[in-house]
Write a structure and sequence with these properties.
Elements (H helix, E strand, L loop, with lengths): L1 H18 L6 E5 L5 H9 L4 E4 L2 H7 L8 E3 L8 H7 L2 E5 L2 H10 L4 E8 L11 H9 L7 E9 L8 H23 L9 E3 L6 H6 L4 E4 L1 H4 L5
Parallel strand pairs: 1-2, 1-8, 2-3, 3-4, 4-5, 5-6, 6-7
Helix pairs in contact: 1-2
Bound molecules: pyridoxal-5'-phosphate.
The site of pyridoxal-5'-phosphate (PLP) has 11 residues, from strand 8 and helix 9.
């Protein structure tokens, strides 16, 4: 098991290095439905971050903290705020004032967060629509305990789509890269936006071409999930 995961991680790291040599793009191992041992094997092989979707699952799995930063990449229910703050190094799924407000109220010091963007404006996905991002960031100083370290973007699935639809996803990734760069140039003290997290197993090469700083991979590292 560990050997297979290590080989997959090394393959992905080589891909990252081939497309964006020397830039320090980070690999986030997405460990939903994976054991602690599987996750730790990915970290030992070079994954720099761990992403979990559910607070409860993460709490059960990481009662002993992982050796690399742990990010929440799934939707946050506001009744889980306390555990979230204790457990995660970053909450990457801020997509509403309500969630920002709830976190800000409970954080005593400072919490790293990312803005979640629904790039394709799909009804089935969470995340803020791209056209609302800028206005949201401008007023994010209202939550002094939150530091917006980046953006996490979701895209329509490329699996089983036509060439034309694939082109659209690639264009959307480029646009999202542009949006991230323009917002970062604003240099809001509360939003340094150093990170752009986009790209999953089926589209991470495109995300690398579009300038991402973090790719989030599950299947490519651990094989298919069985629900
Ligand atoms: C599950 C998940 C991933 C990883 O998906 P794979 O296709 O298995 O690489 C990445 N990001 C988010 C938000 C996810 O929920």
């Amino acid at each position: 098991m560990a050997q297979e995961i290590a080989e997959r991680v090394q393959h992905v790291l080589a891909q990252i290095e081939a497309i964006r040599p020397g830039e320090g793009v980070k690999l986030m191992a997405v460990t939903k439905m994976r054991t602690r041992e599987e996750a730790l094997a990915a970290v030992a092989a070079g994954a720099q971050l761990i992403g979990e979707n559910k607070v409860q699952e993460a709490k059960d799995k990481w009662h002993e903290k992982p050796p690399v930063p742990l990010h929440l990449i799934g939707h946050l229910q506001t009744n889980k705020v306390k555990y979230t703050i204790d457990l995660f190094d970053s909450v990457d799924s801020i997509d509403s004032e309500k969630v920002a407000e709830a976190l800000n109220q409970r954080v005593t010091d400072r919490l790293a967060v990312m803005l979640e963007i629904n790039a394709g404006q799909e009804a089935s996905k969470t995340g803020m629509f791209p056209q609302h991002v800028r206005a949201f960031l401008e007023q994010a100083h209202r939550w002094p305990h939150l530091q917006f370290i980046g953006m996490m973007a979701l895209f329509p699935s490329a699996v089983g789509t036509t060439l034309d639809e694939k082109k659209k996803i690639r264009a959307l990734m480029k646009e999202t890269g542009e949006l991230w760069r323009t917002c970062r140039e604003e240099r809001f003290p509360w939003a340094p936006l150093d990170e752009l997290s986009m790209g999953m197993t089926d589209d991470y090469e495109w995300a690398l071409e579009a300038g991402t700083t973090i790719v989030r991979l599950g299947t490519a590292l651990f094989g298919p999930r069985t629900y």
